Amino acid sequence: MNDQTFQMHDIRGVLIPISGGRLLLPNAAVAEVITLSTPEPIAGTPEWLLGRVSWRGWRVPLVAYSTLAGLPRPQSALNSRVTVLKVFGGNPRMPFLALVTQGFPRLTTISSDILVSTGNGEDLPDGVRQQVLVRDEEAIIPDLEAIERLVTEAIAAASAVEPVAD
Fold first, then answer.
1. How far apart are CA 28 and CA 45, in angstroms?
2. Are 33 and 101 in contact (CB under 8 A)?
3. How many whole angstroms separate alpha carbon 93 and alpha carbon 65?
4. How many Å apart are CA 123 and CA 115, to the nearest integer?
5. Alpha carbons 27 and 5: distance in angstroms, whole number
């Protein structure tokens, strides 16, 4: 085998600003960036699950990623946006998730020579797959599968709790 067999191919990625840091995702995972609107609340869900937002005929769960991962909370909502992501967990009722972000994503080309893992990969907060440096900028690779699972579990638990009639 030659050395090229094991080299990482360049991929298009996006650095997405969030309160307390940046997320790094493949460009293909981002469906759209939209204006933050007031979400429809889901009673009985954790603080990080803000509710659902309407997007192209879907009611998409809106996650405050910074809260979920234990990062600093946003100082201001003035530049808040919603980044709608494609998820691939196989739930046909939830093919998209939305994250509260700060500003617009920045396209970048990711290659093995500019991506450096930081930390040991242990004791990572909820929803974090890996912490990395991209051209000397710290970024978080979110664990979309874990976030999707947490959202599904939170919605299921909330719908299982029925209000008590007087």
1. 29
2. yes
3. 21
4. 21
5. 24
* pLDDT at 54 > cutoff 70: yes
Query: Per DSSP, what are the bridge partners of residue 102?
Result: 80
What pLDDT shows up at residue 83? 96
Q: What is the mean predicted confidence (pLDDT) over 137-163? A: 88
Tokens encoding 123? 């004791």
Contact between 47 and 66 under an 8 Å Cβ cutoff? The reply is: no
Torsional sign, CA 108, 110, 113, 117: positive
Name the 3-class secondary structure at 150. Answer: helix
Distance of CA 112 to the CA centre of its chain: 22
**Residue 52 · residue 61 · CB < 8 Å:** yes
Report whether 39 contacts 100 (CB < 8 A): no
Single-letter amino acid, residue 25: L
Q: How far apart are CA 86 and CA 30, in angstroms?
A: 6
Amino acid at 75: Q
> pTM (2 decimals)?
0.85
- pLDDT bin (cut points 50, 70, 90) of residue 96 is very high
Amino acid at 83: T
Across the range 107-127, mean pLDDT stands at: 82
